[in-house]
């Protein structure tokens, strides 16, 4: 098992980096005592599965133990553990500004009264680890999406691999879903409700689907919907969006919306690039 060690200057974005790793499917463990890292690595290895992805966050919150961090890292290497060190850094000026804006205490605040003094001390403590790091990311002028993309590149992850999509059919008469990011109204399409033999069925049944999709308007709308969503997905992913809910509604939520939701789900699922969920709220 190969795991990631995420460390760096306090305020440089370690928490954001771990959040990104968590979104990418990593099991993240933060702020453990440095001395326990080898024991943790052994435990994780003994529990390893093929899908294991683990990230460990280490920083000066460990206190005095952090002075021995380089020795701990060397011990991990000597024991044959496979790991990367990702080091988050930023300029002293940017770190100072971030602390002033958030008004949070620096982890080394007990050693000095001025934040800038604590930043300089922390940099001295971390320099040996930074020198040993496999990847150093300077977040001084990075937005969150830029940090996310940097980590994905380091891990060679697909830029859209952490986007979870829910395609949700619903009926307007029962209210619109509050969590929908995109909402489409398909009440203009032919309505199977007025066909006696179709009224008791849903869009999951072939006769209803065939009835709805035989319309030229339905076919054209479905294609334009698929084209637009396919265009949007990689752009949402590039912005760091991790969850997208696409609502498709008709009057009762049983026929037309279910049919179009199924069509869209099948098209997006065929791309093989996203995790897609399908839910029929009112069917």
TrEMBL record:
Record-listed GTP binding positions: 59-62
Keyword Nucleotide-binding among UniProt keywords: yes
Keyword Nucleotide-binding: yes
Residue ranges of domain RapZ-like N-terminal in the record: 2-157
Residue ranges of domain RapZ C-terminal in the record: 165-282
Entry superkingdom: Bacteria
Annotated residues for binding of ATP: 8-15
Alphabetized UniProt keyword annotations: ATP-binding, GTP-binding, Nucleotide-binding
NCBIfam families listed in its UniProt record: PRK05416.1
Protein known as: RNase adapter RapZ
Source organism of the structure: Ohessyouella blattaphilus
Gene: rapZ
């Amino acid at each position: 098992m190969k795991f990631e060690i995420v460390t760096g200057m306090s305020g440089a974005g370690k928490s954001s980096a771990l959040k990104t790793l968590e979104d990418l499917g990593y099991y993240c463990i933060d702020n453990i005592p440095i001395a326990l890292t080898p024991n943790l690595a052994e435990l994780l290895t003994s529990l390893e599965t093929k899908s294991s992805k683990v990230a460990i966050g280490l920083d000066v919150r460990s206190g005095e133990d952090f002075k021995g961090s380089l020795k701990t890292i060397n011990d991990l290497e000597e024991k044959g553990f496979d790991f990367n060190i990702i080091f988050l850094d930023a300029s002293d000026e940017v770190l100072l500004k971030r602390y002033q804006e958030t008004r949070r205490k620096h982890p080394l605040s007990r050693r000095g009264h001025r934040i800038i003094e604590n930043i300089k001390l922390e940099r001295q403590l971390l320099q040996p680890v930074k020198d040993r790091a496999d990847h150093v990311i300077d977040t001084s002028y990075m937005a969150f999406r830029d940090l996310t993309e940097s980590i994905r590149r380091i891990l060679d992850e697909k830029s859209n691999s952490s986007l979870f999509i829910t395609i949700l059919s619903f009926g307007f008469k029962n209210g619109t879903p509050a969590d929908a990011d995109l909402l489409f109204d398909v009440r203009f399409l032919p309505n199977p409700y007025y066909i006696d033999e179709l009224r008791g069925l849903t869009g999951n049944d072939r006769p209803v689907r065939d009835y709805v999709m035989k319309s030229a308007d339905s076919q054209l709308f479905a294609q334009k919907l698929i084209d637009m969503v396919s265009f949007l997905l990689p752009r949402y992913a590039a912005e760091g969006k991790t969850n997208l809910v696409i609502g498709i509604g008709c009057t009762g939520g049983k026929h037309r919306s279910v049919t179009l939701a199924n069509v869209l789900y099948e098209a997006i699922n065929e791309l093989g690039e996203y995790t897609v969920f399908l839910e029929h709220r009112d069917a």
